[in-house]
Amino acid sequence: MIDLHTHTNKSDGTDSPRELVNKAISLGIHVLGVTDHDTTSGWIEATQSARGEISLALGSEISCLTTDGISVHMLALLFDGANLEMQRMLEDNRDGRLPRMAKMIEKMQAAGIDISMDDVESARPLGATLGRPHLADALVIKGLIKSRDEAFQGLLNNDSIFYVAHVSPTPTQAIQIINKAGGVAVIAHPFASMRGQILEVSDFEVLVEAGLHGIEVDHRDQNPDERGILRAIALELDLVVTGASDYHGNGKVNSLGEFQTSPEQWEKLESRADKRRVVGA
Questions:
Q1: Chain-centre distance of CA 274, in angstroms?
Q2: pLDDT tens, position by position, 68-79
Q3: Together in a domain, 136 and 230
Q4: Cβ neighbours of 217 (radius 10 Å)
Q5: What is the pLDDT of residues 145-175, one digit of tens each?
Q6: Are β-strands 55-65 and 71-77 bridged in parallel, bridged antiparallel, or unpaired?
Q7: How many domains does the chain have?
Q8: In angstroms, rounded to a whole number, what is the distance separating the alpha carbons of residues 209 and 200?
Q9: Is residue 126's pLDDT more than 90?
Q10: Are 269 and 12 in contact (CB under 8 A)?
Q11: Quick check: 50 and 17 in contact, CB under 8 A?
Q12: What are 12's strand-pairing partners?
């Protein structure tokens, strides 16, 4: 089993890196991607927890924004964690999250929704990268919604009047920096229409020119038709096809290992990094 997209409480998941690795081991997962939003802070604990037959593909999910204002998430895997340009990009993204959150809260307050930054900070685990899921958790705690999923289908959807984008690299810029850091770039759930605006088929050629390596095709937020289109794009452009859970612990219904990457596709993806950086077996 190979699951290349998961989150811990270092961003917006609920499991610690150790708990995540332990769950993956218990399920028989052989390769686990640890990809917290805009941070590598969970790498050390995850590495210390790896044992037996499990291997870790350490990475990060990078928040990007197209020139047309479409939110895109780019999975960066197997890059050099000490690369300064990469770490600067991650840090800049983290720094942009606080003013963005303040603007979203301001919009909600103006609409009569009883929520504050203190509420969000109370819902955010210590040291976690601030994000919309923590706002969703705060709304749940206050009884304003029932779950994170409800929030992302409504109040916090990309098309919501409360949504605010933050300063981020374009997908092309992120891909180029990932490549410079020796890693591989996989675009995450690019056709997840339930989240809001999505990319067009024509967008992928530009991303490939920038150095894109793969497409996350099998993901619960993409329906069978969307997956079929993405699989055809990957075949035409010689991109790796991945599948992953996008696991967040108790924060989302996604189950660890519910979608997977084939060993053949994983081998192809790993070979495109500038050196072997898999941790473990």
A1: 22
A2: 888 899 999 999
A3: no
A4: 29
A5: 999 889 988 899 888 999 987 779 999 999 9
A6: antiparallel
A7: 2
A8: 16
A9: no
A10: no
A11: no
A12: none
> For residue 140, what are its two tokens?
């749940």
Kindly indicate the confidence band of residue 108, based on its pLDDT and cuts at 50, 70 and 90. Answer: very high
Q: Which domain does 135 fall in, by range?
A: 97-153
- Give residue 172's pLDDT: 97
- Residue 31 is which amino acid? V
Q: Which CATH number does the domain housing residue 220 bear?
A: 3.20.20.140
Tokens encoding 233: 């794009």
